[in-house]
Amino acid sequence: MGFPRFKSKKRALLSFRVRCKTSTAGRASIRVGDHAPRTVTLPGIGTVAVRQDTRRLRRMLAKGRAKILSATVTHRAGRWTVSVTCEAADLHAAACHQPRTPTTGWVGVDRGLTAFVVAATADGTPTLRVDDPPRPARSAMVRQRRLARAVTRKQRGSRNRADAAARLGRHHARVAAIRRRFLHEVSNKLVKTHDRLAIETLTITGMLTNRHLAAAVADASWGELARQLTYKQQWHGGHLCPVDRWYPSTKTCSACRTVAAAVPLGQRVFTCQACGYRADRDLNAAVNLAIWAEQHHARVRDLPAGGPVTKARRGKGSGPRTRADETGPDDAGTAPTPPGVRHGRPRRALSHNSTEL
Ligand SMILES: [Zn+2]
Q: A Pfam family this protein belongs to (predicted)?
């Protein structure tokens, strides 16, 4: 393995992990709610107050349904977070994602800059339209420039410069948080109402080379939306169909299938030269994506339905599982990581399974 590599104090993400050890008296070194309910006790550090409610985690620990394995303490953008890794029992059936019965056909999802998302079925019914997405990077650009300028004006290596850099870092974290929240809202809305989504494969890196569009495209974070849709559909047992990137979804008439010449970006209404069909540009594209998926994926491969995602070992022999091993419907967490606790200034959470100190 060689000599250990030490972590630098100047890393953007400072973090360390401590394992939970149990003393001979049976006392765990990482404890939650030892003194006050909203506290976490770490070995060598002591008891620290946390922001997030720890009640469900404490209840699982008390009942032996969860066991703390380790705790990771992270410092990012001025906030401390402790994530507690646990080994927990399987989720109660009521707390799992329910596999849905297929309802509608395919729904095409067109991602754009004017309307962030337009979803429609193959017969032309619009199902969801999200206009006016937040453009956090654009609206924060004035402040970002000022903060970045402030950093370069400070003397290298000085305390002032480090403070200015931290201020800029917090600004970037805020922009990212706004974007992340919005994307989760949109992807949840899509996944909860549609079990079959068709999404075009975009060459986002290619679009970023267009300097007139690059900033807007990057701010829209379409790639992250696709990533969230992929894993959230898997949770729910739904399907996400990537549409061939060369399929002309914006140029094709969704009524008569005639492929027109390229439509300029500024033209918001699609008009078919052959049959006179007129529709919103993004709606027409979304309908075309749905039609493509209907044609190419008439029979869909069944994805594994969203059962409990858990790494918990059965423990206590291999006999049949009893109800006592299962978490209750009110117990903490979605499966992979049990929620820790959050603390700090009363602000929005960074993530669900993290604890802000
Ligand atoms: Zn037409």
A: Cas12f1-like_TNB
